[in-house]
What does this fold into?
Amino acid sequence: RAGRQRTRQGRSFLGGLVYWSFVLGIWGGIGLAGVVVYYGAQLPSASTWAVPDRPPNVKIVSTNGTLIGNRGSTGGQALGLHEMSPYIPQAVVAIEDRRYFSHFGFDPKGFARAMAANVAAGRLVQGGSTLTQQLAKNLFLSADRTIGRKAQEVLLALWLEQQYSKEQILEMYLNRVYFGSGAYGVEAAARRYFNKSARDVSLPEAALLAGLLKAPSRLSPARNPEGAEQRAQLVLATMREQGLVSDSEMTAAMSRHTTRAAKYWTGSEHYVADAVMEQLPDLIGGIQGDLIVDTTVDLALQKFGERAIRDLVAEHGAERDVSQGALVSIDATGAVRAMVGGYDYANSQFDRAREAKRQPGSAFKPFVYLAALEQGLTPDTIVNDTPVRIGNWQPENYNEKYYGQVPLSTALSKSLNSVAARLMQQVGSGSVIEAAVRLGITSRLDPNASLALGTSEVSLMELTSAYTTFAAGGWRNPAYLIKRVTTADGTVLYEHKDDPERAISPQVAGMMNAMMQKTVQEGTATRAQFGHPAAGKTGTTQNSKDAWFIGYTANLTTGVWFGNDDNTPMNKVTGGFLPAEAWNRFMSRAHEGVPIAQLPDYLPQPQWVANERPNNRRPSQRVGDGFDDGRAPTQGGNGNFPPPPDPQTTSSTGGQRSIVDIILGR
It folds into this structure.
């Protein structure tokens, strides 16, 4: 009897427990609903809810469509779910919301489990949010952890589930969620950490990305590769537990090496991307949607230039006290084909190709000689190389060596300072400045005697761009980087139009080419020789603080600079040493398979008429000098460069059509 009584008491207790649990559950549900309704009432009307547009992305590509970089607040373009590696959504759902495809935006089981874990821990250790809730928070709400915000998050998640399919919600989430190190969305994260598209992400890489979502800043492989790897292995184990991968796939994925990413974007092409973003507003105004920017940069040439700078700094940096270098390469139409702004973009994003202003030294002398030729001198004019004093200034030749009576061409090829100073006195600083500006120098030039030796600061980009005028037979094509800007649907917002001008007469351009070819053949830049006709000028400033070589072939004009950001001297680095060597390495690679082409030449006396100067007519007008019909050069040809001149066009008297004439088939 006592046993039966105890049984009845137990049943009564159990029934009461069930009853009161049911009652409490009802009241708890009512209370929860009341909280949701209360805080939901503080939201705007549901009729006004709309998913905000994803911040615009600017996709920057090279001449052949290869990605240079993405810019914008996301750092990567949006991809459709079907475009991503299938491992990415699988890994994210497995670790973040395993019941994603079965719940209705809010997961009661997951929420209850998270609350139990929080109570057991005595603190908030789990959020219990579904992927839909996380997306709702990212789209509409702040990051505050309050009951009110949580209630609003649930309401917005339910709304999202009513408006969009599971696939659409997951796609929006993966394209917007933060993955650490400034990367928003899977495409930006894949580019940031693996230097590849999210289309090509492997299983272990997808596991690493999914693992970052718990704590993207703390687990980023750019700062914590070991932590990121441990979390990725947990993701892989979870995927195996859910039957998404096999034992062999999990084992193979876990055996890979830890992913290590640079603390900042790396690669010299990011100097190009930064320059594009700086120039875009002037071309199209504000950025209203996703854009595609076609640049003039050839990524193969870009990598050749980057390697030349990096290798020489690595080889000679310690011995020669040199820490930085820059390179710019421009074709005859003004298109920038490569632009390396420094030794390592990851360590310094300052662009030494465009933004740094340094003294060019003797690399400025061609403008002095140009002014002299335009006043009647020729490469054969005899000049006197002896010590000279101008007021209190007494320029000296390198190693204090003087040659006496020499032709003008020899004076330039050997970079004789005394001759440059005498020429400046003879033609006047105004003529020299006018010539430099006409060719594209935009920096302020001080009209003093020392300008002849390059004491006014200029950028590598503007100096290199000015030299392209010599290579193009006297045509001036301003340097440009952006070829076309289009929207995602193909609407053209901007397209570059060539607008060249005749800046130097063909005869004078030919004379300058002949003299600067001599610099490479037997002067200060013999290291630059590489099998193609080339011309150029070296420059070295006082105490070797700056070393330059600006040189060109009929196809490319390339400028190189070496120095230190803090302006400290290098150890005996001249323009004919590291800059000429880097130029040689770059141009040798750039001209592989390119036919040999002669530079525009000039007719010898007596056909040469003194004081011949361009009349500043537009290219569409006839210059009437007997060497050019006045038409402007156009882009075209095969390979990397405009079509080279035909060597058969050289006349018996030494006259030759310019590269512009050859390009136009004249």
